[in-house]
Amino acid sequence: MYTSKIFTVLTGFPTWATIITVGLVSTFYTFLGGMKAVVWTDFFQSLVMIAGLLAIAIQGAIRAGGLEKVWQVNYDWGRIQFFDFNPDPTQRHSFWSLIVGASVGWMSTYGVNQASVQRYSALSTLHKAKSAVLLNIIGVIILVTVTCLAGIVMFAYYVTKGCDPWKGGIVANPNQLIPHFVMEVLGYPGLPGLFISCLFSGALSTMSSCLNALSAVTWEDILKPYVGNRSESYQTWVTRILVLVYGAAGVGFAFMAQTLGGTVLQASLSFTGAASGPVLGIFLLAGVFPWANWIGCVSGGLIGLALPLWISFGAYSMPAGKTHLLFPTQNCTATAITVGTTLATTTTTAVYELSAVERLYTVSYLWYPSIGAATAVIVGLIVSFATGPMSIDDVDPKYLIPLFDRIFCCLPGRFRRTLRCNLEFENPEDIKAEKDLQMIIEPSKIPQEKEKFTENKTYDEIPPPPYTPATDGELFAMTEKNSIICENQNIPSECIHSIRL
Fold first, then answer.
1. Which of 116, 322, 358, 381 is the most exposed place for a label (fewest CB within 10 A)?
2. What is the SS3 assignment for 435-461?
3. Rounded to two decimals, what is the model's pTM?
4. Are 223 and 11 a contacting pair, CB within 8 Å?
């Protein structure tokens, strides 16, 4: 939706046509290529996004007088505030909302979001999955830093001009500031096109990732338990049809989102935060508290979803809050200032005392994931104990998270054992290795040519991957049960492989 509005500002192309085009393109290549297409396109699109933002920041800094002047201007106008420790949750941005509230949001994104977990599961080892997360953190730091740099550069540029386009009435809303800035600063052949590519890269990568994740989780968790195991071609076509369905739904929601006010970033983080918080809460409820039952998880998840969504919808019914920040308007024309004043007066209402419910609507959008997660855990525990908690002995420790061992790793072992209710947790690497050793090739996947498996063949002559030959140590470590299975199914011992998921 944001891309369509910006594209309309830059080129005059209709908003509805841009929404349909982005939806069709992302749905098309997700339909054809699946996960592999999404990952590779996301990689190249991220490079385009960073390149476009760097072009804005570099050229804008040059026009504004250099980075040193950019920083000084923003500091003088109160835009550089690293340590605002105001505990008021209704303040839009503070140290606590950005560090604590945003951290919970990022934890949900990287820990339980289907689009992220699906990528971790597609890697061959746990070590590679951890490396992918760490590399992604570096990429996000670079992207957010360049984005913030472009923002302060743009503000310094308009301070030097003495006219803020939004307050001066030149643009209708804050979402149009960047394209207006691009048309002023990047007046060179190809550079505005680079910015448009940056916008479309962000839109396409986000939508394709969501389409792929939604189709996969719908098949695996909703459809597969009812239709049973089917052929690969059947699963492929079902997930492709689901991609088309979700792609059409995404285009429809984009048309609905055109009516939302405020910045696109706030709208996006508000609704995604409200939805991702309870998912994180359910995960923590099940992984940290062995007493939680399924009734508590379902009840906590539903209420944890309803509460932040209610707050986020209610926030859009509230008048825009006033800001203490100043904006440069001294060089704006009288007509522009009049238009800006008219826009401001038509979008605000008289000041009045807020009720308790209305004050809840003013909570910063960065706290929505925390509200959803905390509600899911608290309600889930209350309902679980009210309906009969599960016994600790009924829960396999490998499905629990050794939270206190991670947080209080320096405490003596007896104290940590008490905190974890005397449960013994296995190392994740050991659980993964045990799973690897217990997996064998299905009989249908074994080559039928018996001459390939003679007594004098070596392991090097076993058919190549996707099935990696097991080492001598792994073969000796195979359990007696697996050996019996191999003998009953006439599987040659050379066929036993350690499949790396």
1. 322
2. HHHCCCCCHHHCCCCHHHCCCCCCHHH
3. 0.70
4. no
Quote the domain boundaries for residue 93.
2-259+319-361
Tell me: the pLDDT tens digits for 288-339? 888 899 999 999 999 999 998 898 888 877 766 566 678 888 878 744 444 4
* pLDDT score of 207: 75
CA distance 199 to 192: 11
Among the candidates 345, 361, 377, a domain finishes at 361
Q: Which of 302, 337, 361 is a domain's end point?
A: 361
- Is residue 269, in this structure, part of any structural domain at all? no
416 within domain boundaries: no
Q: Which letter does DSSP use for residue 427 in this model?
A: P
Quote the CA–CA distance of 119 and 115 in Å, as a whole number.
7
Tens of pLDDT, residue by residue over 370-404, are 999 999 999 999 999 999 988 887 888 777 887 77
Q: Two tokens at 40? A: 């590779």
CA distance 214 to 222: 11
Residues 351 and 438 in one domain: no
Average pLDDT, the chain: 75
Q: Judge whether 285 lies within some domain.
A: no
One domain for residues 252 and 110: yes
Q: How many domains does the chain have?
A: 2
Question: How many whole angstroms separate alpha carbon 32 and alpha carbon 498?
Answer: 31
**447 and 355 both lie in a single domain:** no
Query: Would you say 50 and 131 are in contact if contact means Cβ atoms under 8 Å apart?
Result: no
Cβ neighbours for 112, distance < 8 A, ≥ 6 positions apart: 276, 279, 280, 283
Give the three-state DSSP class for 112.
coil
Q: Are residues 357 and 436 in the same domain?
A: no
Contacts 24+ apart (CB under 8 A), 430-439: 431/398, 432/125, 432/126, 435/501, 436/474, 436/498, 436/499, 436/500, 436/501, 437/474, 437/477, 437/478, 437/479, 437/498, 438/479, 438/482, 439/498, 439/499
In tens, the pLDDT along 117-141 reads 888 888 888 888 888 888 888 888 8
Backbone angles phi, psi at 385, to 5 degrees: -70, -30
Chain length of the chain: 501
Look at residue 486 and tell me if it is in a domain: yes
Could you give the angle at the alpha carbon of 172 between the alpha carbons of 260 and 91, nearest 5°?
A: 60
